[in-house]
From TrEMBL:
GO cellular component, one term: membrane
GO molecular function: GTP binding; GTPase activity; microtubule binding
Domain Dynamin-type G, first and last residues per copy: 32-91, 101-266
UniProt family annotation: Belongs to the TRAFAC class dynamin-like GTPase superfamily. Dynamin/Fzo/YdjA family.
Subcellular location: Cytoplasm, Cytoskeleton, Phragmoplast
GO biological process, one term: cell division
Gene3D superfamilies tied to this protein: Dynamin, middle domain (1.20.120.1240), P-loop containing nucleotide triphosphate hydrolases (3.40.50.300)
Keywords recorded for this protein, A-Z: Cell cycle, Cell division, GTP-binding, Motor protein, Nucleotide-binding
Annotated ranges, domain GED: 488-579
Protein name in UniProt: Dynamin-related protein 1C
Biological source species: Gossypium australe
InterPro entries in alphabetical order: Dynamin, Dynamin_GTPase, Dynamin_GTPase_CS, Dynamin_N, Dynamin_stalk, G_DYNAMIN_dom, GED, GED_dom
SMART domains: DYNc, GED
Length: 579
């Protein structure tokens, strides 16, 4: 079976850890509230601070008339195995008070008051009660209800408040002080024996040091001896002497604390395990420490790059938003650009006449102005280069934006700003290479349409015989036979139909070329060159690439400290709890 001191000491250790590491919120809050503490409650000048000192066995708290304890004083004491004894208040964790003994967490609360005196706010009565209530209403708080023996128990502020927050009385210990100051011929046996007001736990009488003893610097050892002598020789309380005094109260509290702690060990361990899981998850989220070995660093860089690559591919393939914008380029931007090409101007009657007239020079047209057709078609096809290259650029900018978003969304990369920049630079350089190859390819597609015309299209054209118009009896010139408006309109219409066919073809082939040269290559080999470069880097350069944000490193260190503390607490509790 675990010793009382070992159990209470472990709980104290966890309490101090919760305070020092700031675990009052989040996962630490529930753990803190599960741990027992002792709060001293009573009216002003009821002897609360003196009782607390008597339990501890040391003189360390201020005292005097009126309000002396003006704020809750939380004191955690843990018996040391060796070296000097010390104590720390939670509001001053780095200031140590030495020479203390028992393993308890004690809270000295301001005294309850009934009226505000001069210089105090009108709300002080309510303020103090709310402050005290905020501590004692917690289910982990053991209440020491201090009542002076020379006061009617029915008017005890401490008992009244304790009854409100602990109606079952499981957490309340009644303490009578100032037994030695009662009027001659009176005693408090009815209260101490539980006949005047019964509590679940026995009442304990205390005789504190008098102000004269304090002024004479009577130490706590002598004070305790005098207290024992008082009860042993008292005709009123001699029969209760073995269950009276501050030493007995400390023993009673320790036994109760041990019982409470034993009951709460499973829940405490459960909360510690939950906290450990949360801290491990947080460490996994922000990343474990970087290894010092060059091979391990290279492996880590490659794994981080693969993580980025997975996110990037999810954007392209639809797992994340953004890839649909590439389809938008082909489905909306490219067709709209093709419709805006200036074919109406290029194939106007005036321009058709100009091109056809100049095509054969001084030679007459024997059958049809074939060179005029070719020049009109070549001139029209040239316009397709603009939309083709614009599609390449539009997809390039979409891919660049997806690279930026993918880097930002890759959780594993967030701790490495230098590597983020390196990946962004390498990815953008690769996209530039893909864009250049894609631009060459789509321009070739356009030029191929000029290099060899689709002859079947023209074979299907049936040229109807046309009458040659004669105006004012003037004879036709050598090249005027096909230049009347009807013929020019027919030529323009034929060329326009052919260009429409070419436009439909390019509307399908340009997206294929862009996807093949840019999107497909981005998915296959976005960081291929980067991988090769990284593999040739020295260890120092690898370390620089894995340079972390100092704030993130500090956060990981703090989480690791808390994690080790909770693991140690869990292991120690497991080791001693069931011995």
């Amino acid at each position: 079976m675990a010793t009382m001191e070992s159990l209470i000491g472990l709980v104290n250790k966890i309490q101090r850890a919760c305070t020092v590491l700031g675990d009052h919120g989040g996962q630490g809050m529930s753990l803190w509230e599960a741990l027992p503490s002792v709060a001293v409650v009573g009216g002003q000048s009821s002897g609360k601070s003196s009782v607390l000192e008597s339990i501890v066995g040391r003189d360390f708290l201020p005292r005097g008339s009126g309000i002396v304890t003006r704020r809750p004083l939380v004191l955690q004491l843990h018996k040391t195995q060796s070296g000097a004894e010390y104590a720390e208040f939670l509001h001053a964790p780095k200031r140590r008070f030495t020479d203390f003994v028992v393993n308890l967490t004690l809270i000295d609360l301001p005294g309850l008051t009934k009226v505000a005196v001069e210089g105090q706010s009108d709300s002080i009565v309510e303020d103090i009660e709310n402050m005290v209530r905020s501590y004692v209403e917690k289910p982990n708080c053991i209440i020491l209800a201090i009542t002076p023996a020379n006061q009617d128990i029915a008017t005890s502020d401490a008992i009244k408040l304790a009854r409100e927050v602990d109606p079952s009385g499981e957490r309340t210990f009644g303490v009578l002080t100032k037994l030695d100051l009662m009027d001659k011929g009176t005693n408090a046996t009815e209260v101490l024996e539980g006949r005047a007001y019964r509590l679940q736990h026995p009442w304990v009488g205390i005789v504190n040091r008098s102000q004269a003893d304090i002024n004479k610097n009577v130490d706590m050892i002598v004070a305790r001896r005098k207290e024992r002598e008082y009860f042993e020789t008292s005709p009123d309380y001699g029969h209760l002497a073995s269950k009276m005094g501050s030493e007995y109260l400390a023993k009673l509290l320790s036994q109760h604390l041990e019982l409470v702690i034993r009951q709460r060990i499973p829940s405490i361990i459960s909360m510690i395990n939950k906290t450990i899981d949360e801290l491990n998850a947080e460490l996994d989220r922000i990343g474990r420490p970087v290894a010092a070995d060059g091979g391990a660093q290279l492996y880590m860089i490659l794994e981080l790059c693969r993580a980025f690559d997975r996110v990037f591919k999810e954007h392209l393939d639809g797992g994340r938003p953004g890839g649909d914008r590439i389809y938008g380029v082909f489905d909306h931007q490219l067709p709209a650009a093709l419709k805006k090409l200036p074919f109406d101007r290029h194939l106007s009657l005036k321009n058709v006449q100009k091109v056809v007239t100049e095509a054969d020079g001084y030679q007459p047209h024997l059958i049809a102005p074939e060179q005029g057709y070719r020049r009109l078609i070549d001139g029209s096809i040239t316009y397709f280069k603009g939309p083709a290259e614009a599609s390449v650029d539009a997809v390039h900018f979409v891919l660049k934006e997806l690279v930026r978003k993918s880097i930002a969304e890759t959780e594993e990369l967030k701790r490495f700003p230098s590597l983020q920049n390196d990946i962004a630079t390498a990815a953008n350089e690769a996209l530039e290479r893909f864009r250049e190859e894609s631009r060459k390819t789509v321009v070739r597609l356009v030029e191929m349409e000029s290099s060899y015309l689709t002859v079947d299209f023209f074979r299907k054209l049936h040229a109807a015989p046309e009458k040659k118009p004669e105006k004012n009896g003037n004879p036709p010139g050598p090249n005027n036979d096909h230049f009347h408006d009807t013929s020019l309109a027919r030529i323009g219409s034929n060329v326009s139909a052919y260009i429409a066919m070419v436009s439909d073809t390019l509307k399908n082939t340009i997206p294929k070329a862009v996807v093949y040269c840019q999107v497909r290559e981005a998915k296959r080999s976005l960081l291929t060159h980067f991988y090769a470069q990284v593999g040739r880097k020295e260890k120092e350069r690898l370390s620089a690439m894995l340079d972390e944000d100092p704030q993130l490193m500090e956060k990981r260190t703090q989480i690791a400290k808390r994690l080790e503390l909770y693991k140690a607490a869990r292991d120690e509790i497991d080791a001693v709890a069931w011995k």
